[in-house]
Automatic annotation (TrEMBL):
The keyword Heme applies. Pathway: Secondary metabolite biosynthesis. SUPFAM superfamilies: Cytochrome P450 (SSF48264). Keywords: FAD, Flavoprotein, FMN, Heme, Iron, Metal-binding, Monooxygenase, NADP, Oxidoreductase, Transport. Its cofactor is heme; FMN; FAD. This is Cytochrome P450 monooxygenase. GO terms for molecular function: heme binding; iron ion binding; monooxygenase activity; oxidoreductase activity, acting on paired donors, with incorporation or reduction of molecular oxygen. In the N-terminal section; belongs to the cytochrome P450 family. The lineage of its organism: Eukaryota, Fungi, Dikarya, Basidiomycota, Agaricomycotina. The keyword Acetylation does not apply. It comes from the Eukaryota.
Length: 460
């Protein structure tokens, strides 16, 4: 049969599209290529082929788990240096520890179970509120830094019973710095030729040192639990002491460490990025901000958030969905077909070939969202419109068996944080002319986005 060739930018002989991807901000390159080539294109970097898809239709097609599996491609391979066969980077089903960890942990990540940790989440957010109140209206806030403090302390406390106390120190916790640097370098390494990588001696030494810092932390957390036995059924406890019902097996200590680092990474970067984007979009769209504040004031007044308030503010939920549509903080994922196949009715894809799902662009598909797809409009997520979307039009948490395990956790944490913040402060951009720029590590977040938090005069 005749297949249509997948569009591809012209390349340099022998090197292919080596300069097509900006290693500092890959998602920007992908976005520009998507605008140029449309729903699908192929890059060829020194013989490595990479198919990228950008439409809802193709995303829907590759979200068929009988035909496609999650592939651990270049970036994730680098992450395996710290995350090994942990949930995010495991090659499942071959690596059996994925199934064991998945079955042990799934029950505590349902919406019904994450309710139990709402108070701990509120505890950490209250530390941010206290800090902003004490620093006052003139203090310039590094939005991404303070939200990282919230999400990292939250995952550590709720999943591991361990307090990092990031709000009680001037600088970021050494673990936060090591992780951020590790992620940044991992992303770069993923798109660099090994021969070039080998010459970066200083970077490589720092990369090793960051991994040491991370593993030392994971060990300390495990040792502390051994020294202080408890029957807490949290991520740490279930992984250290739980037995998988299906196989009767427990996780080896090394895999527990990989998973602790996985949760520290996956459980904080994406959620903090989401909070920064949400604040950015709200401040750029004052009408939306006003509507959200009215909703929070009328539903909540000034009383603290409780689990009974979860999912009770439809406009807030719409703001969160729209934020993750335009800014899916895990902006891409990779799949591959089990067998030679054809996608889009005409494009041949060989068995095991990498298909990058560019979620950032799939969720801007004009066929789904219309000509104003680039605009921030929470209204398009309201009144049953979200539920009526074609399947997989919105896929910020991934898909199927390898979808995000922390979706309900993140959803709850974001609600608690946003509600509590807007109950206490009027936020303003420190520089009202700020134009969105992004920074990419494993996830994306706004770059150099500073705000000020003005305590509200009229308590609701
Ligand atoms: C997987 C997004 C928060 C833990 C994923 C995937 C996406 C995603 C898209 C699938 C990746 C792939 O297919 O390769 C997000 C977003 C979040 C968020 C947008 C916040 C807004 C969290 C939180 C946790 C978490 C809070 C932990 C508490 C994980 C884990 C996996 C994962 C462990 C791997 C699951 C597996 O393959 O078994 N996430 N995530 N994530 N996420 Fe999240």
């Amino acid at each position: 049969t005749q297949h249509t060739p997948i569009p591809s930018p012209p390349g340099v002989p022998g090197l292919g599209n080596i300069d097509a991807i900006d290693s500092d901000l890959p998602i920007k390159s992908l976005h520009e290529l998507a605008q140029k080539y449309g729903a699908i294109y192929e890059l060829n970097v020194m013989g490595n082929k990479m198919i990228v898809i950008n439409s809802r239709d193709l995303l829907n097609e590759v979200s068929d788990e009988t035909r496609f599996y999650k592939k651990i491609a270049a970036n994730s391979n680098q992450l395996r240096n710290a995350a090994g066969d942990g949930l995010f980077t495991a090659r499942a089903p071959e690596e059996k520890n994925w199934g064991i960890a998945h079955r042990l942990l799934m029950p505590i990540f349902t919406p019904g179970s994450v309710c139990n940790i709402a108070d701990d989440m509120l505890d950490i957010v209250s530390q941010l509120v206290l800090k902003w109140e004490r620093f006052g209206a003139k203090a310039v806030i590094d939005t991404a830094e303070d939200f990282s403090r919230v999400t990292l302390d939250t995952i550590c406390l709720t999943a591991m019973g361990y307090r990092l106390n990031s709000f009680y120190r001037e600088d970021l916790h050494p673990l936060a710095v090591a992780m951020a640097d590790f992620l940044l370098v991992s992303t770069k390494r993923g798109s660099r030729p090994p021969a070039v990588q080998a010459t970066l001696v200083v970077e490589n030494a720092k990369y090793e040192a960051d991994q040491k810092t991370m593993f030392a932390m994971a060990e300390e957390i495990m040792n502390e639990r051994r020294a202080n036995p408890t029957d807490r059924q949290d991520v740490l406890g279930l992984m250290m002491y739980g037995k998988d019902k299906e196989t009767g097996l427990s996780l080896p200590d090394k895999t527990v460490q990989y998973n602790l680092l996985t949760f520290l990474i996956a459980g904080h970067e994406t959620t903090s990025g989401m909070l920064v984007f949400a604040v950015y979009y709200l401040l750029k769209n004052p009408d939306t901000m006003r509507k959200l504040r009215d909703e929070i004031d009328s539903v909540m007044g000034s009383r603290p958030f409780t689990t009974a308030d979860m999912n009770c503010m439809p406009y807030l939920i719409a703001v969160m969905r729209e934020t993750l549509r335009l800014a899916p903080t895990a902006p891409a994922r990779t799949v591959a077909p089990f067998e030679d196949t054809v996608i889009g009715g005409k494009y041949f894809v060989a068995k095991d070939a990498s298909i990058t799902v560019d979620t950032f662009d799939c969720q801007r598909d004009r066929e789904v969202w219309g000509p104003d797809a680039e605009e921030f409009k929470p209204e398009r997520m309201l009144d049953g419109k979200f539920e009526a979307l074609p399947s997989n039009a919105w896929q910020a948490f991934g898909f199927g068996m390898r979808a995000c395990i922390g979706g309900a956790f993140a959803w709850q944490e974001a609600q608690i944080a946003l509600v509590t913040i807007f109950q206490h402060f009027d936020l303003v951009m420190n520089d009202p002319t700020y134009v969105l720029q992004m920074k990419q590590t494993l996830s994306i977040k706004p770059k150099d986005f500073f705000i000020r938090a003005i305590p509200r005069k009229t308590s609701p």
